[in-house]
Specification:
Carbamate kinase; alpha/beta; 37% helix; binds uridine-5'-diphosphate; 239 residues; nine-stranded mixed sheet; 18% strand; globular; single chain
Amino acid sequence: MINQIKYKRVLLKLSGEILMGDQKYGHDSKAIEKVANDIKQVHDMGVQICLVVGGGNIYRGVSGAAAGMERSTADHMGMIATVMNALALQYYLEQKQIKTRVLSAIPMMTICEPYVRRRAMRHMEKGRVVIFAAGTGNPFFTTDTAASLRAIEMGCDALLKGTQVDGVYNSDPKKNKDASRFERITYKEVLTNDLTVMDASAISLARENNLPIIVFSLHKQGAFAEAMQHQGNFTIIEG
Ligand code: UDP
């Protein structure tokens, strides 16, 4: 099995929503445990894994801004939400005997390590799963952009984006039954067709640095391991 794996080091981007399962807000232990199982499966294959987790299950800066709050403050709150998710993921991964480190772009020294690139590299070389929290540390960005940035900084072979659907479609498959999935699509096509898989800054950063993005559904158990071997349904964004 190990021979078929195309990637030695990857970054998995998890949206906050994935951690809330069927709930309307927050965390669902079964949903987090399922994600932890998927990560363990790939970790057991000897792949170095780092994670960027979103915060949309708790708080999004744009919602706060829409309600009248100053955007920077709202975004700081959103970044803190991602730290909560990172700690939850750490707990569930460590329950499965996977060594992890949470590194936050906003230093919170009594809770986790601050983000230091060389330290993160060292953790990964030692086989620890590194969870990047607090996005880029800056307001007006998203955790998708943080995922592209950290994947490039870590020298990852690919960025895996686990979503609600199994790839990039030409229109929303939840609204249009005739929507079709791309097997492969270029960064430029994603940008010019305004496909909403990741925000434009994340795609542009990946494009400038030739970072392949694999979009797949996290709903199916084992889909992360399948995507790593280019099996099952997924879309690859490259070229
Ligand atoms: N955020 C930010 N800067 C970053 C990353 C995130 O300000 O570099 C804030 C922003 O308010 C965002 C929130 O954190 O709405 C949660 O992140 P995101 O919406 O990307 O989470 P996801 O949709 O992946 O759950």
